[in-house]
């Protein structure tokens, strides 16, 4: 068995176990394999093992890989910091953008999505932990941003995303995931499309699943250490 196959099987088992622990079914959880820094051939191998969703954080790297993999039917996710001048590269390729939190990003994605006649599924990134340097909208500004997004025809906000702080023990950051779920539950009343939670990475995905993650973004645990 290849190393990647072993790692993937272990991740899938851990997802299943975490889901069952809280009475959820693993099929509610989409595994987004984060292939950043790994070559197109690594994506091809993961695809051959059954992975269908891939996340990238740089527009140019995504575009290059996508062009090398035009023969496979992968679903792509943009998960990185958004530079508005690069939006035009990823919009035609991806089905989801996880890391949107500024009005100007929404405006540009909407404009580019309209040009290629698609409705982009978007997660709004929330700065739950309140760290100064962290990306994401403050919880108290979420409703304003959602109202703004509502006015854009080629944007559909489907959920919230967060990056938890690095922690030795993922139990220390359980509250971050719980808070994102509570925000989603609160918003769902007025914004019924906001149903999804993109949270959990290699170091903390089990806790995120226990707290309700519906998309987990996992790199290292599948592809190995990035260089
Ligand atoms: C790199 C990255 C991940 C995956 O991180 P791992 O720790 O390798 O699983 C998830 N989300 C975002 C936004 C990332 O940039």
Question: What does the model show?
Answer:
- The chain has an 8-stranded parallel sheet.
- α3 (59-68) links the parallel β2 and β3 (75-78).
- The relative contact order is 0.15.
- It is an alpha/beta fold and 227 residues long.
- The two termini are 23 Å apart.
- The longest helix has 19 residues, at 3-21.
- It contains 9 helices and 8 strands.
- The chain has a single domain (3-223), classed as Alanine racemase (TIM Barrel, Alpha-Beta Barrel), CATH 3.20.20.
- Helix content is 39%, strand content 17%.
- Bound molecules: pyridoxal-5'-phosphate.
- The site of pyridoxal-5'-phosphate has 13 residues, from β8 and α9.
From the helix content, strand content and strand pairing, which structural class follows?
alpha/beta
Total discrete domains? 1
Q: How far is the first residue's CA from the last residue's CA?
A: 23 Å
Quaternary status of these chains?
single chain
Number of strands: 8
Low-pLDDT sequence parts: none
Helicity level:
25-40%
Identify the bound ligands.
pyridoxal-5'-phosphate
Radius of gyration: 17 Å
pLDDT averaged residue by residue = 97
CATH class: Alpha Beta
CATH architecture: Alpha-Beta Barrel
Please report which band the strand proportion falls in: under 5%, 5-15%, 15-25%, 25-35%, 35-45% or over 45%: 15-25%
For the report, how would you describe the main beta sheet? 8 strands, parallel
| Global shape | globular
Predict the CATH topology: TIM Barrel
CATH evolutionary superfamily? Alanine racemase
H/E series, N to C? HEHEHEHEHEHEHEHEH
Question: Widest sheet: strand order?
Answer: 7-6-5-4-3-2-1-8
* Number of helical elements: 9
């Amino acid at each position: 068995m290849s190393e990647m196959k072993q790692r993937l099987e272990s991740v899938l088992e851990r997802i299943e176990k975490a889901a069952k622990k809280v009475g959820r079914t693993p099929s509610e959880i989409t595994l987004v394999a984060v292939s950043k820094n790994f070559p197109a051939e690594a994506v091809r191998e993961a695809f051959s093992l059954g992975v269908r969703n891939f996340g990238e954080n740089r527009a140019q790297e995504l575009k290059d890989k996508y062009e090398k993999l035009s023969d496979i039917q992968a679903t792509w996710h943009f998960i990185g910091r958004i530079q508005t001048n690069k939006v035009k590269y990823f919009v035609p390729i991806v089905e989801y953008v996880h890391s949107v939190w500024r009005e100007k990003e929404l405006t540009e994605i909407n404009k580019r999505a309209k040009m290629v006649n698609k409705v982009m599924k978007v997660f709004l990134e929330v700065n739950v932990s309140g760290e100064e340097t962290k990306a994401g909208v403050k919880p108290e500004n979420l409703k304003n941003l959602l109202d703004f997004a509502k006015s854009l025809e080629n944007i559909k906000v489907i959920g919230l995303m967060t990056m938890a702080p690095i922690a030795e023990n993922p139990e220390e950051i359980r509250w971050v995931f719980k808070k994102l779920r509570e925000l989603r539950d609160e918003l769902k009343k007025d914004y019924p499309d906001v149903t999804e939670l993109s949270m959990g990475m290699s170091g903390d995905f089990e806790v995120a699943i226990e707290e309700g993650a519906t998309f987990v973004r996992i790199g290292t645990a599948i592809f190995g250490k990035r260089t």
